[in-house]
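Predict the holo structure. Ligand: nicotinamide-adenine-dinucleotide.
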Amino acid sequence: MSVGHSRVLASGAEGWFRLDDHVALVTGACGTLGPIWVEALLEAGARVAALELPGAPASAGYKALESRCRDRLRRFDCDITNRDSIETAAAALVREIGEPAVLVNNAGVDQPPDAGGARSPIEALPIEQFRRMVEVNLLGTFQVTQVIGGGMAARGSGSIVNIGSLYAAVSPDQRLYDHMPGDVPFLKSPAYGASKAAVVNMTKYFAALWGSCGVRVNALSPGGVQGAQDDQFKAKYGARVPLGRMAQAEDLKGPLVFLASRASSYVTGHELRVDGGFTAW
Ligand SMILES: NC(=O)c1ccc[n+]([C@@H]2O[C@H](COP(=O)([O-])OP(=O)(O)OC[C@H]3O[C@@H](n4cnc5c(N)ncnc54)[C@H](O)[C@@H]3O)[C@@H](O)[C@H]2O)c1
């Protein structure tokens, strides 16, 4: 094969992952992982609508992108638990940047150990906390899919990526948290994994429903992403993972662009676990 030929092949392969002239929408875009998805989509050439709770502070990661890519990144207020709010944001983004071809359902709530707030033993876990996780993680994702996905189905194309979690597939290993100080031991909430498992199941529902309309629907389930966790947690977590470490931002971008782009044109209803092999043993 000539060098020229292999160059053509290489640029063809890169082309499968490009999102030039596409509008992509990311919910909960101004938190920790949101800017990673946004950056990946911008790098693939998309214009990006960042949906976020009104007044929610933007993370440093999001602010950096905003100042670098002002022409292709716009923030819109949206509470994903409120149908009117979703419809208002959808109308504004269509008017200002165009019809979305990619939807990343990322907004979600969890209760990590550093979140503060009262801890409870499982028997006393407030039902309101459980309800809130289902409200945002599952019902919010459903409502955004109704509004944005419904439009994609009517237009005959689109790619939806639902952000799941490692804990959609397996129970949290509470031993990862048992060194953390406090009178009441930290307990990773059962509501989080339950809500994410439901999101993965709903992914299959919409993949089946809208396959014939040209809309693909997949889940991307990250393992723990390295941030400000304490060293003991990071060491214990790394020891549980075949790849020996927590995920880094760069580990997540390729899988997202794969699912968003035509590189995955025959992939739908799939849960792509980006967990370093955590669920493999
Ligand atoms: N960080 C991780 O290690 C990790 C691992 C696996 C999965 N996830 C999932 O990735 C997604 C993002 O997580 P993160 O770590 O960036 O969390 P985060 O809390 O840093 O960011 C979540 C964002 O969603 C927004 N949000 C919350 N409720 C909303 C609502 N009702 N409407 C609109 N926006 C709302 C928040 O304001 C916030 O900006 C979540 O779905 C989470 O479950 C995270």
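The longest strand covers residues 215-222. The domain at 3-280 is CATH 3.40.50.720 (Rossmann fold).
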